[in-house]
Amino acid sequence: MATRPIEGRPKVRAPEQEPGAGGLKSLRKAMRILECFSFREPRLSLTDIARKVGLPLSTTHRILATLRGAGVVEQEGDRDLYRLGLKVLELGSVVLANMEVHREALSFIEELVRETGETVHLGVFDGTQVVSIEKIDSPHGLASNITIGKGAPAYCTGVGKALLAFQPDAVVDHVCRLGLTAHTPQTITEPAKLRKELAQVRSLGYAVDNTEHQPDVRCVAAPIRNYSGNVIASLSISGPATRISKDRVLGLAARVHEVAAKLSARLGYTGK
Q1: How confident is the model over 107-113, as a mean pLDDT?
Q2: Which residues contact 108 (CB under 8 A, 6 or more apart)?
Q3: Angstrom distances, CA of residue 253 to CA of 52, 201, 219, 256
Q4: What is the pLDDT of residue 271?
Q5: How far, in Å, are 97, 129, 221 from residue 240 at the CA level?
Q6: Cβ–Cβ under 8 Å, residues 147 and 141
Q7: d(C-alpha 8, C-alpha 234), whole Å
Q8: Whole-number percent of the chain with pLDDT over 70
């Protein structure tokens, strides 16, 4: 005899399934795909991505289609080339706006620009390069090729050396293995000389880019520490070598070191 539902009793629904191992695996695969993109390889083909992550072309294409639908990656027209999408920039801007060092540094950066008349950068280390997260240009102009959000060599920029000097030896070794490419005749290209230079940075408390990254640009920078004493960022003053003469370096170095120390104190560093 067939049974009939009791009047007024709500139908029993199956419980919703919690995300399982399959969903987590897909998320991990998607993250691996996103991590393929870098400053050196901002555009990659489907074949390149599949090879880097070790996934079948069909699986890689399916995940890329999902990421593209969310705006996380973009495809360049009809070409088989992918790049990170504007959604990543949007999310990165949220992170940037909430980074304590970025928030606290703005007034100090503005102060240095007004006082020195030169360009001021705030940089962080991404494991191999220095990334500028804030920059205010000199009112007098500076042809700097370091832009916000893009990486620059840590071994030959002032803002980079002020960070690299306080990284573990293994990190410095890794940067050296990647190659110390000469950008100008002044660039340090020998690992031993670079390590000696970084030791001097630690001793002096500031770094100098003596036209090592760009032929006509000189830069002085100092490290910024957080409450635990770890160097998490650096602050630099950059300008044409004709304006930042060697005689002016010491005065600017003392000033950027002083401002970086104030910013470190604002972040909770007590000097211990």
Answers
A1: 92
A2: 235, 259, 262, 263
A3: 43, 11, 9, 5
A4: 82
A5: 30, 22, 15
A6: no
A7: 68
A8: 85
Query: Token pair of 48, please?
Result: 């390149």
pLDDT digits (tens, 9 = 90+) for 158-205: 999 999 999 999 899 999 999 999 999 999 999 999 999 999 999 999
Q: Residue 68 corresponds to which tokens in the numbers above? A: 């593209």
Distance separating alpha carbons of residues 48 and 92, to the nearest angstrom = 25
Q: What's the token pair of residue 21?
A: 């191992």
Closest C-alpha to 198, from 158, 225, 242: 158
Cα-to-chain-centroid distance, residue 129: 7
Asked if 188 contacts 226 with a C-beta cutoff of 8 angstroms, the reply is no
In this predicted model, what pLDDT tens digit does every residue of 229-265 receive, in sequence order?
Answer: 999 999 999 999 999 988 999 999 999 999 999 999 9
For the chain, where are the alpha helices, taking DSSP H only? 21-34, 46-53, 57-69, 86-98, 100-116, 158-164, 169-178, 191-204, 246-266
Report pTM.
0.67
| Residue 83 · residue 42 · CB < 8 Å | yes
Quote the tokens at residue 109.
């950066």
Q: How far, in whole angstroms, is CA 3 from its chain's centroid?
A: 66
Tell me the CA distances in angstroms from 146 to 8, 124, 139, 184, 240, one per residue in order: 69, 13, 17, 15, 14
Torsion of CA 93, 89, 127, 197, to 10 degrees: -70
Q: Which residue has the higher pLDDT, 246 or 224?
A: 224
The β-bridge partners of 217 are 240
